[in-house]
């Protein structure tokens, strides 16, 4: 988003694999600018991904607006190389291209899955689930309140020295007793299994349970070889000449 806000990028094409479901295939046109209230870089896209990440701000509350076009396309068995070339053909005539290769495209692991028990993961998914309201503004307000409450309550409970003292702790400000019980169980399990709680990491992981969670797909060596071969063939057919190539692990 900072590069878009600075005016360096106005068109984004995200070619993804089927295990990345954060944003559905399609074309999205929205604005990126500075939130007039917080001075934070935000966007006007009402896609659940952006709203749940607290990145949404109405266009009329953005300053220094830059218009962005985002195209999302899944490269899988349902889209042949020829189809992909047709979708991306317009890029062939553009010499001002940055090719950003994320290695998660070939195989990816959600690092949090090995850090917590199945019970904890289920609790996190329940606590941090994103709820859409009738408008994106209401959805964003509810999400902000939800995340703020969860963060503060986890920090308070994590400050308890043992699971015994935790179970006897006073009720906190959350009026939802069922939710408070889930948070207490979550933190108790963490203390019992690890002896301590890292509230920041726990909350950070919880925030990934918004609309779909982090992608997780461990490819076989054979699958990786095929993904690489298909990618090379696609790039060769498009005859791209990027000004810059970046690779992210």
Essential attributes:
249 residues; 9 helices; 6 strands; alpha/beta
**What form results from the Cα inertia axes?**
globular
Major beta sheet, strand line-up: 1-4-2-3
Kindly provide the radius of gyration, computed on alpha-carbon positions and rounded to a whole number of angstroms.
21 Å
Sheet with the most strands, sense and barrel status: 4 strands, mixed
In helices, the fraction of residues equals: 40-55%
Structural class: alpha/beta
Q: List the secondary-structure elements in sequence, H or E.
A: HEEEHEHEHHHHHHE
Q: Number of DSSP strands?
A: 6
Distance between the termini: 19 Å
Low-confidence spans: none
Q: What is the count of helical runs?
A: 9
- Mean pLDDT equals 89
Oligomeric state, counting identical vs distinct chains: single chain
Strand content: 15-25%
Provide a descriptive summary of the structure in words.
The protein is α/β, with parallel strands linked by helices and 249 residues long. The chain is built from nine helices and six strands. The strands form two sheets. It has a four-stranded mixed beta sheet. Strands 5-6 form a two-stranded parallel sheet. A hairpin with a 5-residue loop joins strand 2 (26-35) and strand 3 (41-43). Helix 3 (81-88) packs across helix 9 (221-238) and helix 5 (136-158) runs antiparallel to helix 8 (199-207). The two termini are 19 Å apart.
